[in-house]
Amino acid sequence: MAIEVKNLVKSFGTFKALDGVDLRVADGELLALLGPSGSGKTTLLRIIAGLEWPDSGEIHFDGENALSRGARERHVGFVFQHYALFRHMTVFENVAFGLRVQPRKVRKSEAEIRRRVKELLDLVQLDWLADRYPNQLSGGQRQRIALARALAIEPRILLLDEPFGALDAKVRKELRQWLRSLHNEIHVTSIFVTHDQEEALEVAHRVVVMDKGRIEQVGSPGEVYDSPASAFVHSFIGESIMLPVEVRDRAVHLNGRPLDLVAEDIEAGASTLFVRRHDMLIGPAGESPLQGAVTHVRSFGPVQRAEIALAESATTIEIDAPRDRDLRVGEAIGLKPRRYRIFAV
Amino acid sequence: MTVPRAHASSPAEIARASHDPRSEPRAVRIVLITLAIGFLSVFVVLPLVIVFAQAFAKGIGAYLAALTDPEALAAIQLTLLVAATSVGLNLLFGLVAAWAIAKFDFGGKTLLITLIDLPFSVSPVISGLVFVLLFGAQGFFGPWLQAHHLQVLFAFPGIALATTFVTFPFVARALIPLMQEQGTQEEEAAISLGASGLQTFFRVTLPNIKWGVLYGVLLCNARAMGEFGAVSVVSGHVRGETNTMPLLVEILYNEYQFVAAFAIASLLAMLALITLIAKTVLERHLDEGAPRGH
After folding, report:
1. Residue A286: its pLDDT value, please?
2. What residues contact A299, with CB distance under 8 A and at least 6 apart?
3. In chain B, what residues touch A50 (CB-CB under 8 Å)?
4. Beta carbons of B188 and A84 less than 8 Å apart
């Protein structure tokens, strides 16, 4: 089911949670809403589910107005951050709940409900927990049961609020891959909220980056990482070196001195130069746009991380250099950004 | 409630405890424990013992005769009926009020919480007088009630109303913090799974608060059966008709019928003991039902 959100606005008192949000989600897509806390991502998810109502704006499911229906009639599966499993029911009854509360006319027979719940528990690989209560399960197991419960009603859309937020790092990684393969299996349009960029970039087809109630950028994981549309996206996703610069006469100036960088199509004025750590290449001292001295080197994994005190300004930056480049503390080096972006402040 | 280290029985344990920096010196502990036990004995245990001693002062035959006296039976019956009515009403009101306060946001919520507590801060006698002013012959509804031959004061409806008013906060008070702590996520989950409002209430909300409901009902019932002040004002003390058990105890006592008075009182005392035991059991369930950390 395709979702279309138009100019959604929602305030809580004086706080603007959503400030004019437009979004299209294609049928069968797996989309991540990524942003810091307070960016409005969970509010957007809850409004799509019908658990919250917008002050203004429109939502359409396959062209039909979703706001004319309550949460109960929207047929949206919602997985809560803290699972919200019914604590007085067994795992089996939790998953069966959505089937048991259907109106008598359409309700499945007891045998059919049992078969369907068994199927779902098999899908999340937890059929052996059917008789347990939620407080007897681990966090990862609870999360999977919450997902099975949401899938029981055969939702047209699946919404997940920080699905792995409350789990430890190892379980998170496993569940991420599991969610991706599950989505490949069932193909239901899914949106999940996260503040963890790695999670968003690794799992989603497309990532929606939000800040202060607005959408900053929508794109594939590669697009939001390699071509950030705004200073916020660049600083929020991936680690960046940020230097305050000034653009004038089509040149970039750092502390009053021009750098040998192209600054076409950029408005003059105070700006920020963004470079990914691994895009800052080491060159010969004296012949590069930036000069500095190595103050600290740490080697781990495929790279070595070096702290460089810049000669042009009184700042220290961290770069990721290949391990085969021998770096010594005190060494004077030149730096040249292989790729960079400049955004007006 | 646990008295620290009071269970330390062996001399070795006591010796160790005296060096324990978390514990008080032995002499201080003995004085404190003696004071606590002495206070409890004089103000709680002794009166209780006296109630039963007086009730059985002339033997078990006199005790049973006092309890099976028509006036006593009428009082017991009235008390049970009044308690059932006010507990029933307050269960309904308390559930509705707690549900509204804990699960929804609306204007005037703080005012509603304050109003729920009102009966606790008003003297029961005043509460009774309010009903006299409302339903008495010169009262607000008096003429209308008389015109329709409806008797509220000095009859069952008045007693039930006054008792309901006085015991109103118990169920709501027991449920509001419990429901607030549990939040609305399970209800939201139920609704997104297609449950109606009633299905959500009966299948999700109520099972989660059942021990809290029982706790509130228990305390409400104990107070309803024991209420004296408010009921005394509205009852009119018609013997065999509008005397509840506490009122009858007073009347019998004033007439020097000590065995009869204390026999009835012993029933109320037993109610108190049963309530206490049930309360302890329920509190254990409430602790178990509390959500564990995520």
Report:
1. 79
2. A305, A323
3. 192
4. yes
Read off the pLDDT of each residue in B106-113 and give the average, rounded to a whole number.
89
The beta-carbon neighbor of B190 closest among A88, A97, A135 is A97
Angle B68-B246-B36 from CA coordinates, rounded to 5°: 115
Decide if B208 and A152 are in contact by the 8 Å CB cutoff. Answer: no
Task: List strands edge to edge, sheet with A15-25.
Answer: A15-25, A3-12, A56-61, A64-65
Copy the structure tokens of residue B96: 């509705």
Q: Which residues of chain A have pLDDT under 50?
A: none
How far apart CA A92 and CA A105 sit, in angstroms, is 23
CA A48/CA A81 separation, integer angstroms? 16
- In the numeric block, the tokens 């951050």 are attached to A81
What span, in angstroms and rounded, lies between the C-alpha atoms of A121 and A118? Answer: 5
pLDDT in tens, A81-116: 899 999 999 999 999 999 999 999 989 999 999 999
Let me know: does B100 contact B106? Beta carbons within 8 Å.
yes
Helix/strand/coil for A4: strand
Of A51, A82, A97, the CB nearest to B193: A97
Q: What pLDDT score was predicted for residue B11?
A: 56
Tell me which of A99-108, A123-132, B172-181, B282-291 is least confident: B282-291
pLDDT in tens, B132-150: 888 888 888 888 888 888 8
Q: How many CA atoms lie within 13 A of A100 on its CB side?
A: 16
Q: Distance from A150 to chain B by nearest Cα, in Å?
A: 7
**Nearest chain B CA: its distance from A101 CA (Å):** 5
Tell me how close the Cα of B172 comes to any Cα of chain A, in angstroms: 22
Substitution target from B184, B193, B210 for chain A, most A beta carbons within 10 A: B193
Q: What is the pLDDT of residue B24?
A: 80
Task: State how far residue A86 is from chain B, nearest Cα, in angstroms.
Answer: 6
Instruction: Give the residue from chain A lying closest to B288, CA to CA.
Output: A135
pLDDT at A312: 76
Per the DSSP assignment, residues forming a β-bridge with A293 are: A309, A332
**A187-236 per-position pLDDT tens digit:** 899 999 999 898 999 999 999 999 999 999 999 999 999 899 999 999 99
CB pairs under 8 A between A and B: 67
CB < 8 Å from A in window 254-293 of B: 291-292
pLDDT of residue A324: 82
